């Protein structure tokens, strides 16, 4: 289990990185934290000619507030997000969910851009980003563009990222005042990839009805799934037991999870309903408690 | 470039060496520097035996290329005890509590816990300790003595 | 006089292991060494039509590439491991059929499981060696594959090894009493199928071998991550045709074994041979992907069992037919299978018993004894049965268990069969009733039942389950120890057993220290090296403390006697007037007159100053081989308290209790550590671990992402209670403890989960209890109930 031969390139600026991508893109792999790429190299499942290590590109690091969003550079590590007071205050869903990413030794190297670009449908970040209706900013030496998660995540481990592009930053909308949020996940062991996960943000009106609902399910489809009909169903309703239970199973038929040794397709589909119900309860409870000031 | 000259501060000493860029940090430490206290258990980032500190933070050295550590600081298990051989409190606590059997996974636990204790100054709950060590597999001890050792390390530190 | 046996003496092993100065095989570097990488079969069954090595051999940095043809005439094929064959009286009793089918060194014309070694690259480092692996072109012709134990015994199944005639490699029967009569007398008969899946012992250190050959003295040095260096030496000598005395096999620090490193692997023969052939040191360190595929797996039994019982829960007969899915090769005779048969009735008095075992071959990795070696499988069967009988009769399982125990007054209890070592299998002592009561008291059984009722009302599903085990521990044939006192007065102990986490250096020094009346710090223990003693066996089967401990005790006593004789000579008194303690031999009635161990050791040297009485060999050493008359039976109870998330099917362990008897305890902390660690592995088997192959024989659980070893989040702290019934079979009364912790968790946890779900009736007769599986069982039970209503 040793990596195959490759040429190692280490740009010091975004411009340099993009130029390298433009030159070697087809035969190059971007390495940010390397926590998904290096296992693939060690198993020789990936054999790129070039590795472009963007670890020293400072422009791609950092967490800042911009208007209604928390903007996180692609090269920002999980641990930095986990410990960020800004994220905790403005987008606590992210703080809660990111603790489910691997273990601390992984989170101290793994990056937000890396997780998003890897596009594992059961990974936490793509699910949270989708629930929050965030945006992904991608750049090449020629252009910069902003994509929605639906435009970006195409299928299992597949994104719309072209060989000459990389993720510059990710925008996570702040959670509005009066909202509640929840991240629910089950995995065989702590730190394993999720069997299923749910990220939900519910905004309550003064009368206690749901003003807005944003939900995504991970591990339930080849890309994070937004249950739009469920969200619409919830809006305007008073979230009592019967409403939550009905909402939780409304769109289960539309889920098409991959079955594997840890859980069959049917089980994961069923489990999605259980976790969605739990997430909705928790989000409602938190909204009522007024956790977002 | 398939070869690269790196400058890495390892256990306080600056190492200047040319290395093939595909070499893993774990292999670099073990084979090129003779620091065999860092053990390799799975080489796909699950078992945690190869955990070292990179700029003070725990990382899996099997999931890093040595070149990525260029210009940075690495600490391995060999750096824990004092020069006269006196144990670091975490080592002492492991010895006091029979927190190791075969000892293969132990360096990874020690390095993870060194960082954990430094960054969590208040004595954590058992559950928090369990979570903190959940990225390190041990096949011998069943963990409970490791948890006791971590708690004792807090006491020894004072 | 202070005794160290029974004390929590701190481990001598820890300093090096905590400071990174331990030495595991992979840590060894030798000048001019080459590294090996092994090409392994990607097919479960295929004919090898051609292997093209030209490109690989010419790759820069490659020394050579070796295939089966290169070994012909130089390395003999494996024979069956004679160490695991049965004594004649046992063979005569159970009349087994055993067909020989040992593993080939390297696959020659066909491969029979994924991961089988096909070719070996030697190169300047492992990176280059792996580059060259990718350049070897093997032309495989895939053959049909059989992976299911029931499929493989069908008349028309493809035969994996045509020379064997079919895929049933071994067969045996054990009979006690009159089974038909018992079944006629029974009020009830219950029949079920109970399955223990294939798992992997998975020590954190993989296998590894380094070999160096020195031409100047024809000395072959081998370092291997093994539990049995003497066995490796013996097969190296036999198969490579070397003088045994010229081979030294060392097991340095070994990072866990648990069974998979017990016995010899092809790599342990080939790598040393290649070091001789190329006159360069050769290193091979298995990586984790190789380990998952090619380090032998274990368990994998299916039992079709029938039990005959009375209305009051008394079990009067048990019939069982089971299959052990062995994978493609079996070199271990009936080892695990017979252990299962011998231990299945456990601590229960079941006078009529008939069991048929068949070891069957499939296109999977070969099987090996792993911690418990056939007992976890048997215990899972028996204790599920206790619960099923209780369920059927609406009795408390504790009551059913109590009704069937072998009672203290029946001890020593003849089980009516032979043990694996050929002796009558006799449970020598213990009080199972008291032991279970103790466990249930710690668990707070009565209060738990009330609490459970309350919890159910709040849709909280908690349950309690127990399991019992007996285990024949400390199997022979022998173990050796050599004790000597050097001229500085320091005591050196060499043993034939070979630790990998068991703390031999500490516990054996405690035993020796007590005999000499010194502090354990004055004793150094060395193990895992064939140069220490002429003969040795190894560390497995919960035998270290029993056999090596007894050997150290015996050798120390012999040397002590000799030292007293020498001291008598030195002080001019009879040895009856002397006593030894504190590193001295002194006059009983005049303690100021003494000689030190150092002085005695110097006086033991041959020559004019020698004080060894005439007629006795000079020298300050003694060697003793302990030959146990038979095994000694440890026993215990495990109690699991679990909570089931009924909606998701996840099981959490709230409490785990073990009450056990391992005879004399040498070091309580170390014993508790063995139990806690064993339980962790048992929890793995109960809830997480399973080696899975798909129908093409591809390994699905080939990484640590898929093969789930419990982390600290999954393993609770075990609450322990101790019983100490000293074994009559060795001088210190020791019974083995290494495996016990791993034997009962699957049964205890499965029983607890079933209990948690009551009144819903679910039966967990296969493992692991994954959330998916448990949800399915709950759904089935609920729909069965709604049909009934």
Keywords:
heterotrimer, A: 293 residues, alpha+beta, Uridine Diphospho-n-acetylenolpyruvylglucosamine Reductase, domain 2, Uridine Diphospho-n-acetylenolpyruvylglucosamine Reductase, domain 3, Enolase-like, domain 1, 3 domains, five-stranded antiparallel beta sheet, three-stranded parallel beta sheet, 12 helices, 13 strands, 34% helix, 23% strand, globular, B: 158 residues, Ubiquitin-like (UB roll), DNA polymerase, domain 1, 2 domains, five-stranded mixed beta sheet, 5 helices, 5 strands, 32% helix
Would you give an account of this structure?
The complex is a heterotrimer of chains A (293), B (158) and C (789). Chain A is an alpha+beta fold. Chain A has three domains: 7-49, Uridine Diphospho-n-acetylenolpyruvylglucosamine Reductase, domain 2, CATH 3.30.43; 64-173, 2-Layer Sandwich (Uridine Diphospho-n-acetylenolpyruvylglucosamine Reductase, domain 3), CATH 3.30.465.10; 182-289, CO dehydrogenase flavoprotein, C-terminal domain (Enolase-like, domain 1), CATH 3.30.390.50. Helices cover 34% and strands 23% of the residues of chain A. In chain A, the strands form four sheets. In chain A, strands 4-5-10-6-7 form a five-stranded antiparallel beta sheet. A three-stranded parallel beta sheet of chain A has the order 1-3-2, covered by helices on one side. The longest helix of chain A has 25 residues, at 265-289. Chain A is globular, with a radius of gyration of 19 Å. With 158 residues, chain B is an alpha+beta fold. Helix content of chain B is 32%, strand content 17%. Chain B is built from five helices and five strands, in the order E-E-H-E-E-E-H-H-H-H. Chain B has a five-stranded mixed beta sheet with strand order 2-1-5-3-4, covered by helices on one side. The longest helix of chain B is centred in the last third of the chain and has 14 residues, at 106-119. A seven-stranded mixed beta sheet of chain C has the order 3-6-1-13-10-11-12. Chain C is 30% helix and 26% strand. The N and C termini of chain C lie far apart (72 Å). Chains in contact: A-B, A-C, B-C. Chains B and C meet through helix 1, helix 2, helix 3, helix 4 and helix 5 of B and helix 1 and helix 19 of C.
């Amino acid at each position: 289990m040793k990596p195959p031969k490759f040429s190692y390139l280490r740009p010091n600026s975004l411009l340099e990185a993009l130029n390298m991508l433009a030159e070697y893109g087809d035969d190059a792999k971007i390495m940010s934290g390397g926590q998904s790429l290096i296992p693939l190299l060690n198993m020789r499942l990936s054999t790129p000619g070039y590795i472009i290590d963007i670890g020293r590109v400072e422009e791609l690091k950092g967490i800042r507030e911009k208007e209604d969003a928390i903007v996180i550079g692609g090269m920002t590590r999980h641990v930095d997000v986990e410990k960020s007071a800004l994220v905790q205050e403005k987008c606590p869903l992210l703080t809660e969910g990111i603790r489910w990413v691997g273990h601390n030794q992984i989170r101290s190297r793994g990056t937000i851009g890396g997780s998003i670009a890897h596009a594992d449908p059961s990974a936490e970040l793509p699910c949270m980003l989708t629930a929050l209706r965030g945006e992904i900013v991608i750049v090449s030496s020629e252009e910069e563009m902003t994509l929605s998660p639906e435009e970006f995540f195409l299928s299992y481990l597949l994104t719309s990222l072209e060989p000459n592009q990389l993720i510059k930053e990710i925008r996570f909308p702040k959670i509005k005042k009066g909202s509640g949020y929840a991240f629910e996940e089950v995995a065989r062991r702590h730190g394993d990839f999720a069997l299923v996960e749910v990220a939900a943000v519910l905004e309550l009106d003064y009368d206690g009805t749901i003003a807005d609902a944003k939900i995504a399910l991970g591990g339930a489809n080849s890309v994070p799934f937004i249950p739009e009909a469920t969200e619409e169903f919830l809006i305007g309703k008073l979230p009592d037991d019967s409403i939550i239970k009905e909402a939780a199973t409304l769109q289960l038929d539309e889920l098409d999870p991959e079955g594997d040794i840890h859980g069959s397709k049917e089980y994961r589909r069923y489990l999605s309903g259980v976790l969605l119900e739990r997430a909705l309860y928790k989000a409602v409870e938190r909204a009522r408690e007024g956790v977002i000031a | 470039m398939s070869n690269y000259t790196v400058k890495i501060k390892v256990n306080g000493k600056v190492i200047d060496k040319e290395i093939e860029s595909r070499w893993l940090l774990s292999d670099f430490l073990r084979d090129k520097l003779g620091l065999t206290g860092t053990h390799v258990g799975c080489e796909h980032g699950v078992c945690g035996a190869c955990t070292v500190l990179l700029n003070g933070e725990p990382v899996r050295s099997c999931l890093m290329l040595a070149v990525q550590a260029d210009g940075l600081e690495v600490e391995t298990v060999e750096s824990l005890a004092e020069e006269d051989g006196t144990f670091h409190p975490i080592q002492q606590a492991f010895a006091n509590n029979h927190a190791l059997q075969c000892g293969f996974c132990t360096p990874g636990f020690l390095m993870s816990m060194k960082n954990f204790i430094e960054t969590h100054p208040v004595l954590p709950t058992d559950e928090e300790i369990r979570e903190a060590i959940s990225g390190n597999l041990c096949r011998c001890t069943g963990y409970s003595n490791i948890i006791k050792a971590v708690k004792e390390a807090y006491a020894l530190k004072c | 006089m202070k005794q160290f046996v029974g004390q929590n003496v701190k481990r001598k092993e820890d300093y090096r292991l905590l400071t990174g100065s331990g030495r595991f095989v992979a840590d060894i570097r030798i000048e001019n060494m080459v590294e090996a990488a092994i090409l392994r079969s990607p097919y479960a069954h295929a004919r090898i039509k051609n292997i093209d090595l030209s490109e690989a051999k010419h790759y820069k940095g490659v020394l050579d590439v070796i295939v089966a043809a290169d070994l012909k005439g130089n390395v003999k094929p494996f024979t069956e491991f004679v160490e695991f064959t049965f004594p004649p009286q046992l063979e005569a009793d159970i009349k087994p059929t055993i067909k020989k089918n040992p593993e080939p060194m390297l696959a020659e014309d066909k491969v029979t499981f994924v991961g089988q070694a096909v070719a070996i690259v030697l190169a300047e480092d492992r990176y280059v060696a792996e580059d060259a692996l990718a350049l070897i072109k093997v032309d495989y012709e895939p053959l049909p594959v059989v992976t299911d134990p029931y499929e493989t015994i069908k008349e028309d199944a493809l035969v994996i090894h045509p020379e064997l005639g079919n895929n049933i490699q071994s067969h045996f029967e054990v009979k006690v009493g009159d089974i038909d009569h018992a079944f006629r007398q029974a009020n009830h008969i219950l029949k079920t199928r109970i399955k223990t899946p294939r798992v992997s012992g998975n020590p954190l250190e993989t296998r590894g071998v380094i070999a160096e050959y020195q031409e100047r003295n024809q000395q072959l040095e081998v370092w291997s991550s093994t539990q049995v260096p003497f066995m490796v030496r013996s097969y190296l000598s036999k198969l490579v045709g070397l003088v045994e005395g010229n081979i030294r096999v060392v097991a340095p620090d070994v990072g866990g074994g648990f069974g998979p490193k017990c016995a010899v692997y092809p790599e342990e023969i080939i790598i040393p041979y290649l070091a001789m052939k190329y006159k360069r040191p050769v290193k091979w360190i298995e990586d984790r992907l190789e380990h998952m595929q090619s380090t032998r797996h274990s368990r994998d039994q299916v039992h079709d069992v029938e039990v005959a019982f009375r209305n009051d829960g008394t079990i009067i007969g048990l019939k069982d037919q089971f299959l052990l899915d062995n994978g493609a090769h079996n070199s271990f005779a009936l080892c695990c299978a017979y252990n299962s048969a011998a231990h299945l009735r456990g601590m229960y008095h079941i006078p009529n018993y008939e069991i048929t075992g068949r070891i069957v071959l499939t296109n999977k990795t070969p099987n090996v004894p792993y911690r418990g070696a056939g007992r976890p499988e048997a215990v899972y069967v028996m204790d599920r049965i206790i619960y099923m009988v209780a369920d059927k009769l609406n009795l408390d399982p504790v009551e059913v268990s109590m009704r069937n125990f072998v009672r203290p007054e029946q001890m020593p209890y003849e089980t009516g069969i032979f043990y694996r070592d050929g002796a009558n299998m006799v449970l020598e002592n213990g009080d199972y009733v008291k032991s279970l009561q103790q466990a249930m008291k710690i668990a707070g059984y009565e209060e738990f039942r009330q609490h459970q009722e309350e919890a159910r009302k709040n849709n909280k599903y908690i349950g309690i389950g127990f399991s019992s085990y007996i285990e024949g521990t400390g199997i022979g044939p022998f173990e050796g120890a050599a004790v000597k006192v050097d001229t500085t007065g320091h005591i050196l102990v060499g043993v034939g057993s070979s630790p990998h986490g068991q703390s031999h250096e500490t516990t054996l020094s405690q035993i020796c220290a007590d005999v000499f009346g010194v502090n354990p710090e004055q004793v150094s223990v060395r193990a895992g090296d064939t140069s220490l003693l002429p003969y040795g066996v190894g560390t497995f089967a919960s035998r270290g403390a029993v056999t090596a401990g007894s050997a150290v005790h015996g050798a120390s006593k012999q040397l002590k006697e000799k030292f007293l004789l020498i001291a008598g000579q030195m002080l001019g008194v009879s040895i009856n007037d002397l006593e030894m303690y504190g590193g001295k031999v002194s006059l009983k009635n005049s303690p100021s007159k003494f000689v030190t161990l150092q002085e005695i050791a110097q006086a033991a040297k041959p020559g004019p100053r020698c004080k060894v009485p005439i007629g006795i060999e000079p020298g300050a050493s003694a060697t003793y081989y302990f030959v146990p008359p038979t095994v000694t039976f440890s026993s215990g109870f495990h109690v699991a308290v679990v909570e089931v998330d009924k909606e998701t099917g996840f099981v959490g362990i709230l409490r785990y209790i073990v009450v056990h008897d391992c005879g004399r305890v040498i070091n309580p902390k170390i014993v508790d550590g063995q139990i806690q660690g064993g339980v962790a592995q048992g929890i793995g088997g109960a809830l997480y671990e399973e080696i899975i192959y798909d129908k093409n024989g591809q390994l699905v659980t080939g990484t640590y992402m898929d093969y789930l070893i419990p982390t600290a989040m999954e393993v609770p702290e075990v609450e322990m209670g101790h019983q100490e019934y000293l074994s009559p079979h060795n001088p210190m009364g020791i019974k083995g403890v290494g495996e016990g912790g791993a034997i009962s968790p699957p049964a205890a946890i499965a029983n607890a989960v079933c209990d948690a779900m009551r009144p819903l009736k679910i039966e967990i007769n296969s493992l692991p209890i994954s959330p998916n599986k448990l949800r399915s069982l709950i759904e089935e039970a609920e729909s069965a109930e709604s049909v009934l209503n």
